[in-house]
Amino acid sequence: MPPRREERGFALLIVLWALVLLTLIFSRLVSAGRGETEIAFNLRAAAQMQAEADGLLYMGVFNLLGPTAAGWKADGAVHRVSLPTGMAEVSITDLAGRINPNTASAPLLAALLHQVGADATTADAVGEAITDWRSPDVQGRFEAPQYRDAGLPYAPPGAPFNSLAELNLVIGMTPALLAKLTPHLSLYNRDNPNPAIADPTVRAALRQVGIKIDVSQTALPPKDVFMTAIVPSKGGTYGIRHADVELRTSSSDLPFKILTWSN
User: Which domains does the chain have, with CATH numbers?
Assistant: First the structure.
């Protein structure tokens, strides 16, 4: 017996719902595929920018170590390099003009803090707290009891700073204050700051502690430099790469050594 009209209508409704369901599933698959493709494209573009930025940093090192007439200088100047995606930029700064928080005295650190805007009381306290943090001597003014009283779950390790970000843990330091300090600091300057290449803020701090500034002093070939590469993409975004580099290393057969990479 042929199916009744109601049965035929119900079967047609099932078919229609099945088609709707299949359409939704297909749409989700297409959308997911597009999303995966877009993610893969973005990852590829980011990897390409990163590789180009790394290449530019190596290019900067080779220009630094090349003949004086053809080489670049570690003076913070921006060097522009043409790429298919646009004009990239590379800058190199000699770290000999910066203050090393692992070796600087408390008065010099306090002077630098004062120069970047800290009041005298805060500058003196934080400068001393920095030296107490790195010193194995537990007789400082800012040791474990002071950190415990401040409600902090840690204490000075009595060891050198591993990164500038670690300065944020020092009692009295704030992110805003560290942001102002960072351009004038380096963990890789192995000597006292060289006034001849120091920036005006570091020079002012040196003067504050009684160090004579002779800007006519001949700058020595750089030992350690901070480099930045900025690479454009076709989409209008930029990739940035930073590196601390040791030049003319004595502990290796290589003419340079990458100390840190960061984005």
Answer: 37-95+220-262 (3.30.1300), 106-185 (1.10.40.60)
What's residue 53's pLDDT?
86
- For the stretch 225-257, pLDDT in tens is 999 999 987 777 788 899 999 987 565 667 888
Q: What is the pTM of this model?
A: 0.76
Question: 57 and 241 in contact (C-beta within 8 Å)?
Answer: yes
Structure tokens at 221: 């070939």
Q: Any bridge partners for residue 124, and if so which?
A: none
- Centre a 10 Å sphere on the Cβ of residue 170 and count the other Cβ atoms it contains: 24
Mean pLDDT of 66-70: 64
Question: What pLDDT was estimated at residue 176?
Answer: 96
Find where tokens 């560290």 sit: 178
Burial 173-187 (b: 16+ CB within 10 A, else e): beeebbebbeebbbb
Distance (Å, whole) CA 179 – CA 259: 21
Distances 229 to 93, 238, 245 between C-alpha atoms, Å: 12, 10, 13
- 180, 77 Cβ separation under 8 angstroms: no
d(CA 258, CA 198): 22
Task: Quote the CA–CA distance of 142 and 120 in Å, as a whole number.
Answer: 17
Which residues are within 8 A (CB) of 157 and not within 5 positions of it... i.e. 6 or more apart?
133
Beta strands across the sheet bearing 238-247 = 75-83, 86-94, 224-232, 238-247, 256-262
Kindly tell me if the per-residue pLDDT of 137 is higher than 90.
no
Sheet strands (E) in 7-151: 75-83, 86-94
